[in-house]
C-alpha cells in the first residue's frame, strides 16, 4: 500500500534535485511534513533541510511534523504524482494542517516540479 506512495515521493525528490533553481525556495527552510494515510498505521515523513529532501517512515501515533497531510492513499498519491491537474483535484480532498507559510512553500514546490504537458489540437 505505502510502497506506491514512497515511490511517488522518491520521484518528487528526484524532480526537486533536477530543478536546481528550486534550491532558492528551499534555502534555509527546515521543515518536516508528515503524510498520514487513512486506515494505515505507518506515516511518511518528508524532511526538508539544507536544500535537500529526505523521505522516511514513522509511526502514525508519533506527533512529528510542521505540516500534517492526511487523506486516502489515492488522493495523496495524486498530490505527488507530478501532474498539476491531479494535484489540484487531490488538494481539495486532503486535510492539511500547519503554518500557512510552510503549506504554501510545499504547494509551490509540488507545482513547480509537476510535468508540463502541451496539448496540440489539430
Plain-language structure description:
40% of the residues lie in helices and 26% in strands. By secondary structure, it is of the alpha+beta class. It has a single domain, classed as Nonspecific Lipid-transfer Protein, Chain A (2-Layer Sandwich), CATH 3.30.1050. A five-stranded mixed β-sheet has the order 3-2-1-4-5. A hairpin with a 2-residue loop joins strand 2 and strand 3. Helix 3 (73-79) packs across helix 4. The relative contact order is 0.19. The mean pLDDT is 85.
The global form is globular
Instruction: Tell me what the CATH architecture is.
Output: 2-Layer Sandwich
Could you say how many structural domains there are in total? Answer: 1
Main sheet? 5 strands, mixed
CATH topology: Nonspecific Lipid-transfer Protein, Chain A
Distance between the termini: 41 Å
CATH superfamily: SCP2 sterol-binding domain
**Low-confidence segments, ≥5 residues, pLDDT <50?**
none
Give the strand order of the largest sheet, numbering strands 1, 2, ... along the chain: 3-2-1-4-5
| Overall number of strands | 5
Strand residues, percent: 25-35%
Give a summary of the structure in a few sentences.
By secondary structure, the protein is of the alpha+beta class.
Features:
single chain; Nonspecific Lipid-transfer Protein, Chain A; 122 residues; 5 helices; 40% helix; alpha+beta
Question: Secondary-structure blueprint of this entry?
Answer:
Layout: H1 2-18, H2 23-26, E1 31-37, E2 42-49, E3 52-59, E4 67-71, H3 73-79, H4 84-91, E5 95-98, H5 100-112
Parallel strand pairs: 1-4
Antiparallel strand pairs: 1-2, 2-3, 4-5
Helix pairs in contact: 3-4
Amino acid at each position: 500500500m505505502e510502497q506506491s506512495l514512497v515511490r511517488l515521493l522518491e520521484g518528487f525528490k528526484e524532480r526537486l534535485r533536477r530543478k536546481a533553481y528550486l534550491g532558492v525556495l528551499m534555502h534555509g527552510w527546515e521543515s518536516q511534513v508528515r503524510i498520514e494515510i487513512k486506515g494505515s498505521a505507518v506515516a511518511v515523513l518528508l524532511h526538508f533541510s539544507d536544500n535537500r529532501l529526505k523521505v522516511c517512515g514513522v509511526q502514525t501515533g508519533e506527533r512529528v511534523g510542521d505540516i500534517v497531510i492526511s487523506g486516502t492513499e489515492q488522493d495523496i498519491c495524486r498530490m505527488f504524482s507530478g501532474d498539476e491537474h491531479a494535484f489540484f483535484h487531490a488538494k481539495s480532498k486532503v486535510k492539511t494542517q500547519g503554518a500557512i507559510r510552510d503549506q504554501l512553500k510545499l504547494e509551490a514546490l509540488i507545482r513547480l516540479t509537476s510535468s508540463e504537458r502541451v496539448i496540440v489540437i489539430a
